[in-house]
Amino acid sequence: MREITLENVTLDAFDHALLAAVQVDNQTSARALAERVGLSESAVLRRLRRLRRNGVIVADVAIVHPTVLGTPLTVHVLVSLERETSDLLDAFVRRLRARPEVRAAWYVTGDSDFVLQLRISGMEAYEAFTREVFHDEPNVRGFRTIIAMRQIVGT
Question: Where would I find the HTH asnC-type domain in this sequence (predicted)?
Fold first, then answer.
């Protein structure tokens, strides 16, 4: 994901309105967006191109039902490392990025060093993941697992 800074991008009320709309449904037509925000279709398209080019819109994605993909279980994991040197952090991040189960990961402050969101097929798959990513990694001090029972809010 490309990082952006506020110095790079200036957003006005039209940009904010467009961003709010495409976060709900990025398939909304330019005509419908134009009517919603009070711009012409061409202005909407120009603004969306600029927002993508500048990295404000990072990706246009389809959210697919996880059961269809065979990964109905959402697991959140709090991971603590033994040491946080740059080379060890970079190696752990590379390890996470290589795993398709890892849908999102954050390097965080506090008691844990990372928060992971995994999509997996079941507990057997999670056990295999923990063995390969946590137990076989000497720099992992420990991890805590949180199993999602049901998603209440999400985008």
Answer: 11-72
